[in-house]
Design a protein that fits this description.
- The complex is a heterodimer of chains A (502) and B (167).
- Chain A has 502 residues and is of the alpha+beta class.
- Chain A has two domains: 39-128 and 338-489, no CATH class; 130-331, no CATH class.
- Chain A has helices at residues 4-10, 23-30, 39-54, 138-148, 199-208, 220-224, 226-244, 259-272, 337-352, 364-367, 378-386, 412-424; strands at residues 63-64, 75-77, 92-93, 112-115, 125-133, 168-171, 175-180, 186-192, 252-256, 276-277, 281-285, 288-297, 300-310, 316-323, 325-334, 390-395, 402-405, 427-432, 436-452, 456-469, 475-480, 488-489.
- In chain A, the strands form four sheets. In chain A, strands 6, 7, 8, 9, 10, 11, 12, 13 and 14 form a nine-stranded antiparallel sheet that branches.
- In chain A, a hairpin with a 2-residue loop joins strand 12 (288-297) and strand 13 (300-310).
- The termini of chain A are far apart.
- Helix content of chain B is 73%, strand content 0%.
- Chain B has two domains: 1-92, RNA polymerase sigma factor, region 2, helix turn helix motif (Rna Polymerase Sigma Factor, Chain: A), CATH 1.10.1740; 96-167, Arc Repressor Mutant, subunit A (Orthogonal Bundle), CATH 1.10.10.
- Chain B has eight helices and no strands.
- Classes of the chains: A alpha+beta (502), B mainly alpha (167).
- The interface between A and B is large, with 81 and 78 residues.
């Protein structure tokens, strides 16, 4: 009997790729087109920009030798186009503010000013970086996951599986398991087979074989960063809260997870691999209890977690998580938390350079927002500048527009020769947001994964700043990679998605 | 320079066109199959114009994202035409493009009960073979968010399927 997933795959009406019959002529025809932008691209680009500004922008770098005198640590360079998966160095509204549009992460405005840096620590620190890789033997990994959870499968998964896009599914007596490969971490999912005749016993087996509760959160390593861990749990709890929104009606939480279910979840994590579990949180509702266990790196919260859902009888209903390998790399110095505040804007600008050049401009949508999550369109301004036209940049609420030479990144002298023609050319008016004042409230250290140029993924330390927008009261967060600038290289991050460029 | 650009475009097109074509063909309803080639060409034109913007190593998901948008625009145009036609003919049924081509009644019903977003992400994975990372790029969310959304959508699909099977 076929599984649900097999039946879904079988229902694919176009199982093979489709190539138009006149493909060659089509390609030739296409290459005769000019290279002007079109409306469909523009819409897509603006939407995509949200994720890439928050994701791709944050990818990191390859390792190249640092030639400066005395330096022995490699320079870490951001990958030009790969995705960053964790908390991004871009600002994100952690609570829906007026700038949170449709749930999409939007490119942030750079017009922030920060209060509260003076109260942060001025002590530099150090932290190791890690290389991150996903197990390549998906069959063995899946088998290990299922075994760790105490479930048994009717048949063992077999491999090798070379296509990371394949969803590998195995039908078990009690559970079905799947695993999705990526270059960074394999995502696995184990769930009780609906209405399975032997599901109950299998589920019981899963609980019965859980290892004794491991209170890793109280281990010395974790305890040393207890304060950080606490905040990290809050952050992770947000993610768990989202799961509550997916159908657990009347959900409560997330709150700190305690009791036998938390112990089971922590035990699962310990059995799944050489991972350090943080303080778990739980959300309850609809007879289900969802335990989210953050995975720590160097005692700090990372961008990975495992989630376990239990039925009302405490049997395991489903579990999902990450399988990965970490290798410790060099230990880098860290700038202080106070100095990191300055890097928020610096890194934002560097990373934004991935998408646009020229002065930051905003489209009409952006002008309606006050948070740091609106979309920008600096590319359009740059393009205008290239033609010698004039751009007027108007901060919101400003008494009168300030007319600047187009492409204000250029020196006035460089602009002057085109001024004559610019004076007769079209004028583009772009409205900049007023500076957004953020009162910083907390800073925590954590780790997030970045795609290294030519060297796979790395987990790098982050400072995660949380603050409240003075005018509006909603919460925003910012992340920076707090390594000294000589160890960071964003230079290869060149404009894969020009916002607003035409 | 142009030759180099053309070579890269051909490489990108050769790699992505089968996936783009299949993606559009799977979801072409209520448009006609004869529209598929036109839409593929529209996607390739955008690829040509934006060749420098296409991230190396992520060409296919990137262009599926474009195809998704192109297809939506085509559907919107079609529906606008339907509004006019509605004065002359009975209203169209509400089934989705996917529903129209799925023979497995249980799968069809379970998919139909999903939200558009859930159905979208599930089929990107199950039919188009996209990984969580790629779905994140297509949908404009982070990889982690895509993985979580996919996992939850799969859970809901399975629950729907179980309910359909029971009933």
């Amino acid at each position: 009997m076929k599984s649900i997933d097999e039946r879904l795959a079988d229902s694919n009406p176009v199982a093979q790729g489709y190539v138009p019959a006149n493909y060659d002529q089509m390609v030739t025809r296409v290459m005769r087109h000019s290279r002007h932008a079109d409306a469909a691209w523009k819409t897509f680009r603006l939407r995509m920009a949200g994720s890439v500004a928050a994701a791709s922008a944050l990818t990191v770098l390859g390792v190249s030798a640092l030639n400066s005198a005395g330096a022995v640590l490699p320079v870490l360079g951001f990958q030009a186009s790969a995705a960053h998966t964790g908390v991004s160095p871009t600002a994100q509204a952690t609570k829906a503010g007026p700038g949170a549009l449709g749930g999409f992460m939007m490119p942030i405005m750079l017009n922030y000013t920060f209060n509260g840096a003076s109260s942060l620590s001025t002590a530099p620190g150090s932290a190791p970086v890690y290389t991150l890789s996903a197990p390549t033997d998906l069959a063995a990994t899946l088998t290990g996951v299922v075994k760790a959870l105490g479930a048994t499968l009717d048949k063992a998964p077999s491999g090798p599986l070379s296509n990371p896009s394949i969803n590998y599914v195995v039908n078990g007596k009690s559970y079905t398991a799947s695993i999705n490969a990526s270059n960074r971490t394999d995502y696995w999912n184990v769930y009780a087979t609906p209405n399975g005749p032997t599901g109950a016993s299998g589920v019981t087996g899963a609980v019965g074989t859980a290892v004794p509760p491991t209170t890793s959160s109280t281990s010395p390593a974790t305890g040393a960063t207890g304060a950080t861990g606490a905040t990290g749990v809050t952050s992770t709890g947000g993610a768990t809260g989202a799961s509550g929104a997916t159908g657990v009606s009347g959900a409560t939480g997330p709150v700190a997870a305690t009791g036998s279910l938390a112990a089971q979840a922590l035990g699962f994590v310990q059995t799944l691999g050489d991972y350090t579990a943080g303080s778990a949180t739980q959300t309850t509702g609809s007879g289900l209890t969802i335990i989210n266990v953050p995975l720590l790196i160097n005692g700090s919260p990372s961008d990975m977690s495992d989630t376990f859902t239990f039925n009302s009888d405490d049997t395991l209903q489903s579990a999902t998580g990450n399988a990965f390998n970490l290798s410790v790399g060099a230990t880098y110095p860290l700038i202080s938390e106070a100095a990191g505040v300055d890097q928020i804007t610096v890194q934002e600008k560097l990373l934004r350079g991935t998408y646009a050049t020229g002065p930051i401009a905003y489209n009409s949508v952006a002008t309606t927002t006050t948070s740091g999550v609106s979309s920008g369109a600096s590319g359009s301004t740059g393009a205008t500048g290239a033609t010698g036209t004039t751009t007027t940049v108007t901060p919101l609420g400003a008494p009168a527009p300030t007319t600047l030479p187009a492409n204000s990144n250029a020196s006035p002298g460089a602009t002057a020769p085109s001024g004559a023609s610019g004076s007769t050319g079209p004028t583009t008016t772009t409205t900049l947001p007023a500076p957004t004042v953020v009162n910083l409230t907390t800073v925590t250290i954590g780790y997030s994964s970045y795609d290294m140029k030519g060297n796979g993924w790395m987990e790098l330390p982050n400072y995660n700043y949380t603050g409240t927008v003075a005018k509006g009261g909603y919460q925003v967060s910012f992340t920076v990679v707090p390594l000294p600038s000589q160890y960071l290289d964003f230079a290869t991050n060149n404009n894969p998605i020009p916002l607003g460029a035409r | 320079m142009r030759a180099q650009r053309e070579r890269r475009f051909r490489a990108v097109a050769d790699e992505a066109t089968p996936a783009i074509g299949a993606y559009i063909r799977r979801r072409i309803y209520p448009l006609s199959y004869s529209d598929v080639d036109d839409l593929v060409e529209e996607v390739l034109i955008i690829a040509w114009r934006r060749l420098d913007d296409i991230p190396t190593g992520a060409e296919v998901p990137w262009l599926i994202g474009v195809a998704r948008n192109v297809l939506r625009n085509a559907h919107r145009k079609f529906r606008r035409g339907e509004v006019v036609a509605a004065h002359l003919s009975p209203p169209p049924h509400g089934s989705s493009a996917e529903d129209n081509v799925i023979a497995d009644e249980g799968v069809r019903a379970a998919l139909e009960a999903l939200s558009d977003d859930d159905r979208d992400i599930i089929l990107l994975h199950a039919w188009d073979g996209r990984s969580a990372d790629e779905i994140g790029l297509i949908l404009g969310v982070t990889s982690n968010a895509a993985a979580v959304r996919l996992s939850r959508a799969q859970d809901r699909f399975r629950k729907n399927f179980a309910n359909v099977s029971v009933s």
